[in-house]
Amino acid sequence: MSTHPDTGRGADPRRRGIAGWFDPRGRRLGGWAFALNRLSGLGVLLYLYLHLVILSTLASGAGAWNDFVALASSPVVLAFDVVLLAGLLLHGLNGLRVTLMGFGLVTGHRNAMIVALVLIAALVALGGAARIFGMV
Amino acid sequence: MTVTSRSLAHVRQAGAEHEWGWVLQALTGIGVLVLVTLHMVANHFVGPDGLRDFAGVIAYLSSPLIVVLEVTFLVTVTWHALLGVRAVLFDFGFSPRVERAITRVLAAVGVVTVGYGLWLTALITGQG
Protein backbone atom coordinates (compact mmCIF):
# COMPACT_ATOMS: atom_id res chain seq x y z
CA MET A 1 0.00 0.00 0.00
CA SER A 2 2.95 2.30 0.46
CA THR A 3 4.16 2.29 -3.13
CA HIS A 4 2.89 4.76 -5.70
CA PRO A 5 0.37 2.90 -7.92
CA ASP A 6 1.53 4.56 -11.15
CA THR A 7 5.23 3.98 -10.62
CA GLY A 8 5.54 1.05 -8.20
CA ARG A 9 7.83 3.12 -5.98
CA GLY A 10 7.49 5.38 -2.98
CA ALA A 11 7.44 9.02 -3.94
CA ASP A 12 10.03 8.15 -6.54
CA PRO A 13 9.22 7.31 -10.20
CA ARG A 14 12.47 6.19 -11.78
CA ARG A 15 15.03 8.59 -10.39
CA ARG A 16 15.58 10.09 -13.82
CA GLY A 17 14.72 13.63 -12.82
CA ILE A 18 12.09 15.77 -14.51
CA ALA A 19 12.95 14.35 -17.95
CA GLY A 20 11.87 10.93 -16.66
CA TRP A 21 8.27 12.15 -16.39
CA PHE A 22 8.07 12.50 -20.18
CA ASP A 23 10.21 9.56 -21.27
CA PRO A 24 7.84 7.65 -23.58
CA ARG A 25 9.83 4.38 -23.39
CA GLY A 26 7.76 1.57 -21.87
CA ARG A 27 5.19 4.17 -20.89
CA ARG A 28 1.64 3.15 -20.00
CA LEU A 29 -1.34 5.45 -19.49
CA GLY A 30 -0.66 5.52 -15.74
CA GLY A 31 2.76 7.02 -16.45
CA TRP A 32 1.20 9.90 -18.39
CA ALA A 33 -1.29 10.40 -15.55
CA PHE A 34 1.69 10.64 -13.21
CA ALA A 35 3.31 13.34 -15.40
CA LEU A 36 -0.02 15.17 -15.63
CA ASN A 37 -0.31 15.09 -11.84
CA ARG A 38 3.16 16.56 -11.37
CA LEU A 39 2.56 19.34 -13.93
CA SER A 40 -0.90 20.27 -12.61
CA GLY A 41 0.51 20.11 -9.07
CA LEU A 42 3.29 22.58 -9.88
CA GLY A 43 0.71 24.80 -11.59
CA VAL A 44 -1.61 24.95 -8.58
CA LEU A 45 1.44 25.39 -6.30
CA LEU A 46 2.32 28.58 -8.24
CA TYR A 47 -1.31 29.67 -7.91
CA LEU A 48 -1.28 29.01 -4.13
CA TYR A 49 1.54 31.54 -3.61
CA LEU A 50 0.07 33.98 -6.16
CA HIS A 51 -3.17 33.74 -4.18
CA LEU A 52 -1.34 34.60 -0.93
CA VAL A 53 0.29 37.62 -2.63
CA ILE A 54 -3.09 38.86 -3.89
CA LEU A 55 -4.72 38.31 -0.49
CA SER A 56 -1.95 40.46 0.99
CA THR A 57 -3.60 43.52 -0.60
CA LEU A 58 -6.36 43.04 2.02
CA ALA A 59 -3.83 44.28 4.58
CA SER A 60 -3.71 47.67 2.78
CA GLY A 61 -7.40 48.34 3.31
CA ALA A 62 -10.47 48.60 1.09
CA GLY A 63 -9.00 50.45 -1.92
CA ALA A 64 -6.39 47.92 -3.03
CA TRP A 65 -8.69 44.92 -2.57
CA ASN A 66 -11.66 46.49 -4.36
CA ASP A 67 -9.34 47.38 -7.28
CA PHE A 68 -8.42 43.68 -7.48
CA VAL A 69 -12.10 42.65 -7.35
CA ALA A 70 -12.74 44.93 -10.36
CA LEU A 71 -9.75 43.42 -12.22
CA ALA A 72 -10.93 39.88 -11.36
CA SER A 73 -14.04 40.29 -13.51
CA SER A 74 -12.02 41.04 -16.67
CA PRO A 75 -12.21 38.32 -19.38
CA VAL A 76 -8.47 37.49 -19.13
CA VAL A 77 -8.67 36.80 -15.39
CA LEU A 78 -11.92 34.85 -15.84
CA ALA A 79 -10.20 32.69 -18.50
CA PHE A 80 -7.36 32.13 -16.03
CA ASP A 81 -9.99 31.01 -13.49
CA VAL A 82 -11.22 28.36 -15.95
CA VAL A 83 -7.65 27.06 -16.48
CA LEU A 84 -7.18 26.99 -12.70
CA LEU A 85 -10.46 25.09 -12.24
CA ALA A 86 -9.43 22.54 -14.88
CA GLY A 87 -6.02 22.10 -13.21
CA LEU A 88 -7.58 21.62 -9.77
CA LEU A 89 -10.08 19.09 -11.16
CA LEU A 90 -7.41 17.06 -12.98
CA HIS A 91 -5.07 17.11 -9.98
CA GLY A 92 -7.79 16.40 -7.41
CA LEU A 93 -9.53 13.62 -9.33
CA ASN A 94 -6.24 11.98 -10.31
CA GLY A 95 -5.06 12.20 -6.71
CA LEU A 96 -8.27 10.53 -5.58
CA ARG A 97 -7.71 7.76 -8.15
CA VAL A 98 -4.11 7.20 -7.03
CA THR A 99 -5.15 7.19 -3.35
CA LEU A 100 -7.98 4.69 -3.89
CA MET A 101 -5.59 2.42 -5.82
CA GLY A 102 -2.73 2.91 -3.39
CA PHE A 103 -4.81 1.91 -0.39
CA GLY A 104 -6.16 -1.09 -2.34
CA LEU A 105 -9.75 0.19 -2.30
CA VAL A 106 -10.03 -0.06 -6.09
CA THR A 107 -8.35 -2.70 -8.22
CA GLY A 108 -8.47 -3.08 -12.00
CA HIS A 109 -10.02 -0.71 -14.56
CA ARG A 110 -6.81 1.31 -14.38
CA ASN A 111 -7.03 2.91 -17.83
CA ALA A 112 -10.82 3.33 -17.66
CA MET A 113 -10.47 5.35 -14.45
CA ILE A 114 -7.94 7.69 -16.09
CA VAL A 115 -10.19 8.23 -19.13
CA ALA A 116 -13.18 8.78 -16.83
CA LEU A 117 -11.39 11.34 -14.64
CA VAL A 118 -10.25 13.35 -17.68
CA LEU A 119 -13.81 13.33 -19.08
CA ILE A 120 -15.32 14.36 -15.70
CA ALA A 121 -12.71 17.12 -15.30
CA ALA A 122 -13.45 18.40 -18.85
CA LEU A 123 -17.23 18.38 -18.32
CA VAL A 124 -17.09 20.12 -14.93
CA ALA A 125 -14.56 22.67 -16.24
CA LEU A 126 -16.86 23.41 -19.22
CA GLY A 127 -19.82 23.84 -16.85
CA GLY A 128 -17.65 26.02 -14.63
CA ALA A 129 -16.58 28.12 -17.64
CA ALA A 130 -20.25 28.72 -18.57
CA ARG A 131 -20.95 29.76 -14.97
CA ILE A 132 -17.80 31.92 -14.64
CA PHE A 133 -18.59 33.80 -17.87
CA GLY A 134 -22.18 34.29 -16.72
CA MET A 135 -23.80 32.15 -19.42
CA VAL A 136 -25.79 30.07 -16.93
CA MET B 1 31.42 -7.40 -2.12
CA THR B 2 31.16 -5.85 1.30
CA VAL B 3 28.01 -4.08 2.32
CA THR B 4 28.37 -2.15 5.55
CA SER B 5 25.51 -2.00 8.01
CA ARG B 6 25.77 1.78 7.72
CA SER B 7 24.94 1.80 4.00
CA LEU B 8 22.09 -0.66 4.54
CA ALA B 9 20.71 1.67 7.21
CA HIS B 10 20.78 4.46 4.62
CA VAL B 11 18.81 2.35 2.16
CA ARG B 12 16.20 1.46 4.79
CA GLN B 13 15.93 5.04 5.96
CA ALA B 14 15.54 6.44 2.43
CA GLY B 15 12.87 3.82 1.69
CA ALA B 16 10.97 4.66 4.86
CA GLU B 17 11.00 8.39 4.05
CA HIS B 18 9.51 7.74 0.64
CA GLU B 19 6.78 5.58 2.21
CA TRP B 20 5.58 8.11 4.79
CA GLY B 21 5.87 10.84 2.16
CA TRP B 22 3.43 9.11 -0.15
CA VAL B 23 0.90 8.14 2.56
CA LEU B 24 0.93 11.67 4.06
CA GLN B 25 0.53 13.08 0.53
CA ALA B 26 -2.59 10.94 0.06
CA LEU B 27 -4.10 11.78 3.48
CA THR B 28 -3.46 15.55 3.20
CA GLY B 29 -4.72 15.31 -0.41
CA ILE B 30 -8.09 13.96 0.76
CA GLY B 31 -8.22 16.82 3.28
CA VAL B 32 -7.43 19.39 0.56
CA LEU B 33 -10.11 17.91 -1.72
CA VAL B 34 -12.78 18.42 0.97
CA LEU B 35 -11.47 21.81 2.17
CA VAL B 36 -10.89 23.34 -1.29
CA THR B 37 -14.48 22.43 -2.22
CA LEU B 38 -15.82 24.13 0.94
CA HIS B 39 -13.45 27.09 0.35
CA MET B 40 -14.63 27.62 -3.24
CA VAL B 41 -18.33 27.19 -2.44
CA ALA B 42 -18.08 29.56 0.57
CA ASN B 43 -16.12 32.21 -1.37
CA HIS B 44 -17.53 32.04 -4.89
CA PHE B 45 -21.03 30.52 -4.72
CA VAL B 46 -22.29 32.06 -1.48
CA GLY B 47 -22.56 35.84 -1.70
CA PRO B 48 -22.97 38.25 -4.60
CA ASP B 49 -21.04 38.27 -7.92
CA GLY B 50 -18.73 35.38 -7.04
CA LEU B 51 -16.16 37.48 -5.17
CA ARG B 52 -16.60 39.58 -1.99
CA ASP B 53 -15.63 43.25 -1.80
CA PHE B 54 -13.59 44.48 1.19
CA ALA B 55 -16.58 44.91 3.51
CA GLY B 56 -17.80 41.46 2.44
CA VAL B 57 -14.44 39.86 3.29
CA ILE B 58 -14.43 41.47 6.75
CA ALA B 59 -17.99 40.23 7.38
CA TYR B 60 -17.07 36.75 6.05
CA LEU B 61 -14.09 36.46 8.42
CA SER B 62 -16.14 37.67 11.42
CA SER B 63 -17.47 34.10 11.71
CA PRO B 64 -15.16 31.94 13.90
CA LEU B 65 -16.30 28.84 11.99
CA ILE B 66 -15.10 30.40 8.70
CA VAL B 67 -11.74 31.36 10.25
CA VAL B 68 -11.30 27.75 11.45
CA LEU B 69 -12.23 26.46 7.96
CA GLU B 70 -9.83 28.83 6.16
CA VAL B 71 -6.93 28.29 8.58
CA THR B 72 -7.37 24.49 8.46
CA PHE B 73 -7.35 24.77 4.66
CA LEU B 74 -4.20 26.93 4.74
CA VAL B 75 -2.32 24.40 6.91
CA THR B 76 -3.51 21.34 4.95
CA VAL B 77 -2.90 22.76 1.47
CA THR B 78 0.55 24.13 2.40
CA TRP B 79 1.56 20.77 3.86
CA HIS B 80 0.26 18.90 0.78
CA ALA B 81 1.90 21.35 -1.66
CA LEU B 82 5.33 21.20 0.00
CA LEU B 83 5.20 17.39 0.26
CA GLY B 84 4.59 17.55 -3.50
CA VAL B 85 7.64 19.78 -4.03
CA ARG B 86 9.62 17.30 -1.89
CA ALA B 87 8.50 14.39 -4.08
CA VAL B 88 9.47 16.32 -7.24
CA LEU B 89 12.91 17.17 -5.81
CA PHE B 90 13.43 13.55 -4.68
CA ASP B 91 12.95 12.50 -8.34
CA PHE B 92 16.43 13.90 -8.98
CA GLY B 93 18.03 11.17 -6.88
CA PHE B 94 20.05 13.25 -4.42
CA SER B 95 22.00 11.62 -1.58
CA PRO B 96 20.13 10.80 1.67
CA ARG B 97 21.96 13.72 3.33
CA VAL B 98 20.74 16.22 0.71
CA GLU B 99 17.24 14.70 0.88
CA ARG B 100 17.14 15.26 4.65
CA ALA B 101 18.25 18.87 4.11
CA ILE B 102 15.49 19.33 1.50
CA THR B 103 12.93 18.01 4.02
CA ARG B 104 14.14 20.47 6.69
CA VAL B 105 14.17 23.47 4.32
CA LEU B 106 10.66 22.67 3.03
CA ALA B 107 9.40 22.26 6.62
CA ALA B 108 10.76 25.75 7.35
CA VAL B 109 9.07 27.13 4.20
CA GLY B 110 5.83 25.55 5.40
CA VAL B 111 6.09 27.12 8.85
CA VAL B 112 6.81 30.56 7.31
CA THR B 113 3.92 30.20 4.82
CA VAL B 114 1.38 29.21 7.50
CA GLY B 115 2.78 31.86 9.87
CA TYR B 116 2.34 34.55 7.19
CA GLY B 117 -1.21 33.36 6.49
CA LEU B 118 -2.11 33.47 10.19
CA TRP B 119 -0.60 36.97 10.53
CA LEU B 120 -2.55 38.16 7.48
CA THR B 121 -5.78 36.63 8.83
CA ALA B 122 -5.29 38.36 12.20
CA LEU B 123 -4.55 41.66 10.43
CA ILE B 124 -7.67 41.44 8.23
CA THR B 125 -10.03 40.40 11.02
CA GLY B 126 -8.54 43.17 13.18
CA GLN B 127 -9.78 45.76 10.63
CA GLY B 128 -13.40 44.74 11.26
Give the uncertain stretches of chain A in residue-range form.
Answer: none
Roughly what fraction of the amino acids of chain B lie in strands? under 5%
How many separate structural domains of chain A? 1
* Greatest contact between two chains: A-B, 42 and 41 residues
Percent helix of chain B: over 70%
Name the poorly predicted regions of chain B. Answer: 1-16
* Class by alpha and beta content of chain B: mainly alpha
Secondary-structure element string of chain A? HHHH
Task: Using the 3D structure, state the CATH architecture of chain A.
Answer: Up-down Bundle
- How many separate helices of chain B? 4
Tell me the name of the CATH class of chain A.
Answer: Mainly Alpha
Largest β sheet strand count, sense and barrel closure of chain B: none
What overall geometry of chain B do the principal axes of the alpha carbons give?
elongated
Strand share of the residues of chain A?
under 5%
Return Rg of chain B in Å. 20 Å
Give a quick set of tags describing it:
heterodimer; A: 136 residues; mainly alpha; 3 helical TM bundles of succinate and fumarate reductases; 4 helices; 0% strand; B: 128 residues; 83% helix; elongated; disordered N terminus
